[in-house]
Each structure stands twice: as structure tokens, then as C-alpha cells.
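Weekly structure sync, notes
Attendees: PL (lead), two postdocs, one rotation student
Agenda item 3: pending single-chain targets
PL asked that the sequence for the first pending target be pasted directly into the notes so everyone works from the same version. It is reproduced below exactly as submitted, 535 residues in total.
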Amino acid sequence: MFMIRENLNIQHSFYHVRIFQHALLLNMRDIRRRIGKSRVLPHSVRHRYPRAQEPSPSANYGIKSTCYCEPFSVVSGPVAKAKSPSKPSEMSQSTARALQRVKGSCSPSLWRGPPHGYTRRSFSATCSRRLMDTSGFSDTQLTVREAVSQLCSNFPNTYWQERDQTEQDPQDFHAALAKDGWLGIALPESLGGSGLGISEAVMMMQTITESGAGMAGAQAIHANVYATQPLAKFGTEKQLQSTIPNIIQGKWRVCFGVTEPNSGLDTLRLTTTATKQPDGSYRVSGQKIWITCAQVASKMILLARTAPLDPKKPSQGLSLFCIDLNRDQQGLDLRKIRKMGGKAVDANEVFFDNYSIPADSLIGDEGQGFKIILHGMNAERCLLAGEALGLGYAALNKAAEYARDRTVFQRPIGQNQAIAHPLADAYMKLEAAKLMTYHAARLYDDSSKEGSSPDAKISPASVGVACNSAKYMAAEAAFTACERAVLTHGGMGYAAEYDVERWFRECLVPRIAPVSREMILNYISEKVLALPRSY
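Predicted structure, written out during the meeting:
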């Protein structure tokens, strides 16, 4: 409808877009007068949408970054009221300090105008923070989003481009999250965690991928969040005190050893064995594949068979272990897999050949590992759904920015419905997936609470259905958004500097792992529709 001239400054561009959004309330002639003639913005508009603070420079690169899930510290509405929980018991001290710093930036005084030292963000940055509808989120979730967003702003897209090209692990990013206590976001406070839920962890993971880090940033800490859930719930006191604090503090990294080359999704048919020895220790033999972060991990949550397979009870005889990955010990071999996307984070084949592990590595009871591991699988699906959402929102924002700025035939390409409508469709898919994702996360958290009345108890089946549905919907929505972002950029979508090609390569991960789309459809068909099992 209107074109923004090149010489119009970025701040005015932002204000004009806000006027466009109120087009149904304002007279169209008045809009033309404001933009086309006077170029004078009303006082109420200037102070309703004050300037935002520029992201801090990266310590490594010394440049200012554009974070595509900008902090909410200076916008009006429910976000401006975001505050850390009033009870100290709700989170660890380190996380509380991080949230308190953010809370300080949410002062109502910012509503009166930009304070001294504040600078304008880019047009795309100010618009992107409103791309996802944040209504319905708790104050804690919004504060988590803001704090993690501020942290991620120190790691711009150029940082992740370099890590992708050199395949270097983002250890400094992992360390930054550990320093502020984010690695223990969903772990009990008694173990040094924050005592928050998967709902807040999903928000954290979404914010990381949405910042431009993509799946590489999320996968760097993914296992630290979900793989520790079974350990925290079923581990012995010795395991908890010796392992969890070191993981939260970033001293140790953890990986998840379940998938095998010959069983794949048929987890009950895995062949890696853990044979008990007379002294109580175990000897592990077998192969695992697609084990993320095994090259840098100190610990592995390992699922292995401790009893022969019983066709009538295939879930029996599987046991879960928390083992050390000692590269100097005989019987362990790690081989890195070359892959399509997320190259900053390694994926591996892991070979065990009579690898010795102590008796106290066992988590829970012997033979009950599959039941225990289900506790972490639903959490993983929720987290992966959040990661996919962030990836989709980042790509969609980038596409919308390009469609606004790219001019062909003397008008922005976003004015063409062939460009605008697919992006609008992608947005609606992301919003629908977002609702399902946070619904599933709330179900998971509520079902994990102890002491709930039997009448209000949530069945494990309903949690599984919700978590699998969320993972499916978010993965599909992210793929749609990333694909259309590349197509919107045209030839430039193939260029690494625009990031959308990196996100497109990475958006395939949520569709494939840790469970395929087809298996989720099988699960819904059987558990919800009561159709005969097809596998």
C-alpha cells in the first residue's frame, strides 16, 4: 500500500509499520497525511513505542548483532510487566540473578521515553519481537525469554556462521549459559537447578534457536536439559550429588545413548548389551549411532540390554546407566559423522567392546530402563518442538524483512501476494504449533507434580499424545517457514551470509529426530483413534 523510501530513517520506519497495524482504526486519509506529507509522528505514538537498547557487542567479535527474538524490556502490554518469581525457592540463585538483571530493565520509567544512551534497533529487530504472539505466557516464561535473548545477543549470526563452516563446538556459548544457571532450568533446586518446568525450558530453547543460533545452538545444550530428567527422578543420591551439579555448572556435558544402526526407532530391539560381572560391574558391548556431543561429553545416559529379549515382554530386560566416557579406557571408540546441518555440534557413532562400567552406574532398577527413559522422551519431544518453533520464527522474520526491503519493478516484493500469502500461511502454522507445544509442556509439568489428587491426575497417554503432536506440528511448521524463507530470498537464499540456507538445512532435524513423522502418525492412529497397530 505504501513504500518506505530509502532515505527514511529506521526509527520512522518502525513507527509507520505500527500505524499500518492500526489501519482499521484510523482514517486512511489521515495515514497518508502523516506519512506522505508531514512525516511528523504523534507524541503518543513516539512514547508508546520507545526505542530499544542496542544488543551488547560480542566479546569475541566486537560487533553489534541483530537478535531475531529481541528482549521485551521496553514494550508496553503484558511483556512490560514480566518479573521474576517472588519466591526464592522457584529458581537457583544464579538464574535468579540473571532474571533480576532483566527485571531491572523492565522499569515502567522506560514508558516515558528512551533513556540516555539508548539507540535505535534495526527495523527488522523491532518488528521481530512482535512476530510471535506472547499473550497467555506467564511472567516467568516471558522473563526467561528476555534474559536468554539478551545472552544470545552476544552471539550474533556471524558467530554461528563461522561455527557452521569450521565445525567448531560452541563451547563459549555453552559456558555462558552455564554461568547464568540456565543448564539446570528444569532440575530441582536441591540439586542446584532452578526448579522450573519444561514449559520454561521450552521457552529457553525456542529463544536460543530464534536468536539466529539455530539448531546448532540448541543441540549444544539439548541433552543437558532432557537427558538429565530420568537421572534426576530415578537416580541414587550418590549419582545425583556427583553428577547433576557438575552438569549444571557446565563442567561436564552429557549425551544420550539409545539409537542403534540396526534397530533405529524399534528401541525395544536394540542389541547393545551390559553383562553383569561377579564383582557387580558391567561390561558393555555394542554400537550406538547419532549420538550428539559425544566428542565433548563426559557422561552418557546409556540404554542397554541386561537380559535376553523376551518376545512377549520386549520392554523388560533393558537397563539405564549413567556412565563415564573415558577416552583413555580400553573398549571405547568414538567416530564423528559428517552431516548436512548443525555442523557446529558433533554427531557420532559410539562403539563399545567389553567397556567396563561400575555397578553404581545403574539408574533405577535393573531391567526397568525402558520405563524410566520414557520420562525423558516426552520432555525431549517438547524441547525439540520449541527449538523448531524458534527456527521457524527466525526464518519467517528474515523472509519478511527481505520482502519489505527488496524492491523489484519499483515496489517491494512483499507487496506481491505470491510472496505475502505463503509467508502469512507459514505464520499461522507456527502460531498453531506454538499453542500445541506449550499445551504439551504444561501437561508434562502438571503430570510430573507429586501429590496431585487422583481426580486431577493426567494420564501418561495424554501426555505422550500431546508431546508427539507438538513435535510433529512444530517440525512441519518450521520446515514450511524455512523453505519459504529461502524461496522468498530467491538466489540470495542460497548464500550463506543470509542465514536462511543454514536454517533450512537444520530444519530437517526436527522432522526426522528423535522420531519420524510417520511413527508419530502411527502413534496417534493407535492411541487416539484406536486403529490397529501397523508395525
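Discussion points:
- Residues 1-90, 102-129 have pLDDT under 50 and may be disordered.
- The first helix runs from residue 10 to 21.
Action: rotation student to compare against the earlier draft before next sync.
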